[in-house]
Amino acid sequence: MESANAIHRLLLTFCITALLAGCVGAIDRANTVRVESELAVMEFNSVASRYMERPTFVQASQLIGGPQILLVEYDAYGRYGGYAKIYRADQAVLINDYIKKYLQWAEEASKHEDLIQKEIGMAKAMAGESIRFSIYSASAQRHLLSVETCTLGMCGEDDYVHYMDEKNAIKLSELVTSLANSTLKLQPSGSYQ
Fold this sequence. Notes:
Largest sheet: 5 strands, antiparallel
Strand content: 25-35%
Order of helices and strands: HEEEEEEHEEEEHE
Number of domains: 1
Strand order of the largest sheet: 6-5-4-1-11
Radius of gyration: 19 Å
CATH architecture: 2-Layer Sandwich
Shape: globular
Helix content: 25-40%
Number of strands: 11
Distance between the termini: 61 Å
Mean pLDDT: 84
CATH class: Alpha Beta
């Protein structure tokens, strides 16, 4: 009986903590604006049998009581959108380090014609969530940056992984850097208030 009460207290504590974590750091949708960008997330096209760029949408926002963020979402094949990935301005240095590591590994893997799938690292997203950066070999000459959301430490929803080639990984790095430096060009300008 004593252990059952301890388990109930532990579960109640966990639920209250998860509830509070969900309230802190929610996205401020009222101040979310579109960002003009040529960034393109890729998705596997089974008809073409290769990864192809999809229409991709970038927005800038802020976590309530937290840092500025980029929201990146793409138009997925045959289903309602790809889940948005959140890139925090206060994680820009770490994110850029991961992208540099991906670019180094992609060059090395292409040179040796290696096929690899390896985690690079993780960055904070919002309360209870992080994003995991990995390298994924689509072929011996094509290596993609893989970005997936992890919730409470659990990763692995393959349907919602964002894949990017070297060109788009560099564009993501530039966007995150611009957000962190407050030089990101936002649409619309503030003149429509």
